[in-house]
Every structure is written in structure tokens, then in C-alpha cells.
Amino acid sequence: SDSKSENQSFNTWIKHNQNTNIGTLENNLIGVRGLIGGINNDLLFITYFPKNIEVIDLKTMKPLTGIKNNIILNEEYKFGIQFHLINYFILFCYNTGLLIKYDEQNKSFHYEKLPICHALKNITFYSFVYLYDFIFLFGGRNSITQEKTKHVYKYSMKDKTWNQCKITLPMEIYASFAILSDDDAN
């Protein structure tokens, strides 16, 4: 009933006034992912292949400088960031699980190893949602055999454990997208 809200545009692209780029021509941005966060939800965290994390100030649309540990160098994590799950700074990619924490005051990233689901070792292109302290993964494709799956897995944030759900999808899917309804019921 409010005339202001009736005239307001939703789900529209708005060009930023400044010339802003994410990455360079040399970067491999296939499978790039982004997450809005920060104390005031004014930071955009972008991950891209092979092990990069970029932080952009959404007020200025400029990358933050002087970020520490924004490249995951630990030899223990032999992977490339691509088509991964990132939610609340949790990353699952092939045989790697990481909790990624960003300290805004010190402009520094910190990493904690998380357990991985061995059944998902070669599965890529799955979709995911976060609900009630669980991360649900849907479908996917085996990167070796190219077989699609209709399995559903859940990760407990509290217990840090993986389980395959008893329910399955009605058909095999991959390279899909999952989203929750506003009431978290569908």
C-alpha cells in the first residue's frame, strides 16, 4: 500500500558509477564465488582459482589493500578454488574443508581445517543451502566418471560431521542452483 515501495525497483542491475573490475584478464574466474559479510555487511568476499580471496568495500567498490593471508598457501591444502561451496566462510572443495575467518580490524584471514565427506571426494557441480546449522548439498557430477547423482548430503556445523540423507532427489542433477523460500519451508 505504500506508494514508495510500489515504485521501488527490485532484482535489477544497477551500474556502479566508478570503473570497477573484479580480477584481471590473467585470472581464471571460472567458478568464482562471492559472499557479502563484515560487521556491517559492507564487504564482498570473492574467491577464485587457484587459491585467491579478494575483499571489496561495497561502499567504494574498491578492493581493500594490505590484506594478510588472502592467498591460501598452506601445502596441506592442495586444491584449486573452483565451483566450491562457501557459506559463512566455509569452503568445501574436493578433498578440502576450511573454516575461513576474516578479522576486519587486522585485515587478516585465518583458516581452520574441517572434515570432508569422503563420498564427495570426486563430486563437483553440486548445489547447496544453509538451514538450521546444517549445510545441505544436492546432486553433483563425478569428475572422473562424469556420472550425475541424486544424493543429498548434510554437514552439521555444530558436530562437524557429514551424513548422507535418506531422501534423494527425483532425478540426477548437477550444475544447478538451490535457494530457500523466505519462510525456510521450501
Automatic annotation (TrEMBL):
Coiled coil region boundaries: none
UniProt-listed Gene3D superfamilies: Kelch-type beta propeller
Highest taxon of source: Eukaryota
InterPro entries tied to this protein: Gal_Oxase/kelch_b-propeller (IPR011043), Kelch-typ_b-propeller (IPR015915)
Name of the molecule in the record: Kelch motif family protein
